[in-house]
Amino acid sequence: MAKLKVNGQEHEVEVDGSTPLLWVLREQLGLTGTKYACGIGICGSCTVHVDGKAVRSCTLPVSSIEAGQSITTIEGLSPDNSHPLQAAWKALDVPQCGYCQPGIIMAAAALLNENPDPSDADIDARVDNICRCGTFNRVRRGIHQAVKHMKGGRSA
């Protein structure tokens, strides 16, 4: 039995402790915005926040989540998709296929929590998710537009 706080709600799930968090989120809790892709923690499609830090949930055993830690998925980033990153993604048509974008948005949100005005080099270093469509330049533009919005500048 695992007790998890996901998107502000407490959940008890019957699961083996070695099960990756990704599968608990998707299969047990129905939060399918977190995606499975590589399964070995390289691509970042499965990125969620644990206590505000971006983590790859496909390789994180649920037993490693400590009592009281808070997990945030793309569904919990904002209740109505109004987070400045989500608004910028829509305004700039950042995704192509979109499969990896929830993970990229979660990585970018964790970056902005720690560094509210990142340079391109900061973005490249911290948002290291893999997008097969190659939308990396639009991702950077989207992050910069979200920063402007968060600072009260032009809206996303």
Automatic annotation (TrEMBL):
Limits of the 2Fe-2S ferredoxin-type domain: 1-77
CDD domains found in the cross-reference section: fer2
Pfam family, one: Fer2_2
Alphabetical UniProt keywords: 2Fe-2S, Iron, Iron-sulfur, Metal-binding, Oxidoreductase
Entry's Gene Ontology molecular function annotations: 2 iron, 2 sulfur cluster binding; metal ion binding; oxidoreductase activity
PROSITE patterns: 2FE2S_FER_1, 2FE2S_FER_2
Protein name: (2Fe-2S)-binding protein
